[in-house]
Description:
Structural class: alpha/beta
Strand content: 15-25%
Oligomer: single chain
Order of helices and strands: EHEHEEHEHEEEEHEH
Number of strands: 10
Helix content: 25-40%
Largest sheet: 8 strands, mixed
Radius of gyration: 16 Å
Amino acid sequence: MEIEENAALIVVDVQKGFEDPSWGRRDNPGAEGNMAALIDRWQETGRPVVFVRHDSVQQGSPLRPGAEGNGFKDFVEGRRGGGAGPEVLVTKTVNSAFHGEPDLDAWLKGAGVGQVVIVGIQTNMCNETTARVGGNLGYDVLFPVDAMHTFDLAGPFGWSRTAEELTRATAVSLHGGGFARVVTTEEVLVAAG
């Protein structure tokens, strides 16, 4: 695997609001450590970092603007502005980071970026949607599945899936469908060294 010199790391919705117990049980307790390691590597090597924040428009959401949960988790907030490369904050009200402000696609293309690495919260929601849109826009999308997490989820017809099952389904859909290459944090760290 090759990581381009200007590959962008997209850090999606790593916000305090996801610590709210209302989300339920999550998977991958090592996700935050892997996210931090990737942010550090990107900042050390001067590659671009995109921090994405979800500004929920749903009343009562822990992610709504003005709520404490809207802020980034401390390990992310403490790293913002710490790199040698370009950095941008994208805010959004929908799932895809490509549908926020400023226009992420325009920012990436303006910087000549053709490869993106997506990490953050949640695996099967905003991360997956961002990966699908990125793939549709022609980016080479890397998806280190151990640098993200999600929560158990109930759906229609009494169906429900665990966070682990949802993560596997996302990985299979993205990788098998050609939207992204599902990889590990370690593979990315080695290739980005």
